[in-house]
Amino acid sequence: MRYTDMNKGKVNLFIYGSLRDSRIFQSVSGLRFSRKASKIDAETLFAEPALLSHYRKVSPDNVYYYAIAAPSSRIDGWVIHDVPAPAMAEIDRYEGKRYERESVKVNTANGSIEAEAYLVTHDSMQRHFGDRFHVNLIHELWLRRRIERFIKRRTRPGERTVDAESERRADRELLATTERDLVMSHYHSDAVSDYYLEHELDRPRPSIRHLYDDPQAKPFINNYLALVVKQVLLNQLDEHIQAQYRFELERMRSSERYFKRSVSLLAALQMINSNHKTVELIVSECLRTMPCEKNDLIDYVKYGVRAAKSMFDTRV
């Protein structure tokens, strides 16, 4: 049975591909989802694991997933409960013409329920994808996630402490230019191979220890380190804003003439300028407690990462 009437109210939605990423789901629909009933509100929907029988998930382009009828197969996914019609209309546009939204039965821990699912036929596989922005969004988020996994394997693998996580974020900060170039260069291309990704990212951690005894550099070391901490604060605040408000930022649709992160960077800069006394206190405390003779560049970047996390408060 094909779902055609957009005015029938809320529906359950079975998701098995890119929409399982909560950031993509929110960017597309404007809503979040959670498995915890205590977090459900007007903007957060309830989600639970579900199985779709008699379908197989394939990804011939290594980017998108497609559900194709296969009698002996099943697909693991999530069912999002009570998705309102306006959100479903946005998801329809996101999925594009290649998919057909149909009613299916999915199995959950609480039994079988009816849900909508985006399925494909062999004929529809011959068509092109829809919205170019969302193609880019999927490429970017999945590539950044793979970069995050690479850093977890390389930097203090297996550790789950706050300090280890700060060091990983600091390593990622030092690789920011490489990460940006990887994202930009592959925005309109197929998925990046693991070999290429590791080849680009697996490089020595930069050090400034050799400058400490350089007579020309030594007088400016503290000024340089202060600049490093401020730059990390700006970058990290921008990352927090992007992570928290990606949907709102994308919907603002600033001109293509501007840098993609112009709005979030301006917001981060405004936060720093509005709290300049706090920023100066952070920098002075960093230089006071962390003499350069005992620390390297990564340590100052870690300090900036932790300070930015403390500064950023979504309740404000």
Brief account:
With 316 residues, the protein is of the alpha/beta class.
Text of the CATH class of the largest domain? Alpha Beta
CATH topology of the largest domain: Hypothetical upf0131 protein ytfp
The Cα radius of gyration reads 23 Å
Number of helices: 11
Notes on the structure:
The chain has 316 residues and is of the alpha/beta class. The chain has 3 domains: 11-126, Gamma-glutamyl cyclotransferase-like (Hypothetical upf0131 protein ytfp, Roll), CATH 3.10.490.10; 131-205; 207-316, no CATH class. Helix content is 46%, strand content 19%. It has 11 helices and 6 strands. The protein has helices spanning 22-29, 85-95, 132-154, 162-174, 176-185, 194-201, 221-244, 246-252, 262-274, 276-289, 297-311; strands at 11-15, 32-34, 44-58, 66-83, 100-108, 111-119. The protein has a 6-stranded mixed sheet. Helix 4 (162-174) packs across helix 11, helix 7 (221-244) packs across helix 10 and helix 9 crosses helix 10 (276-289). It is elongated and about 75 Å long. The N and C termini lie far apart (47 Å). Mean pLDDT is 83; it is low at 1-7 and 126-135.
Pick out its properties.
316 residues, alpha/beta, Hypothetical upf0131 protein ytfp, six-stranded mixed sheet, 11 helices, 6 strands, disordered N terminus
Please write out the topology.
Blueprint: E1 11-15, H1 22-29, E2 32-34, E3 44-58, E4 66-83, H2 85-95, E5 100-108, E6 111-119, H3 132-154, H4 162-174, H5 176-185, H6 194-201, H7 221-244, H8 246-252, H9 262-274, H10 276-289, H11 297-311
Parallel strand pairs: 1-6, 2-3
Antiparallel strand pairs: 1-4, 3-4, 5-6
Helix pairs in contact: 1-8, 3-5, 4-11, 7-9, 7-10, 7-11, 9-10
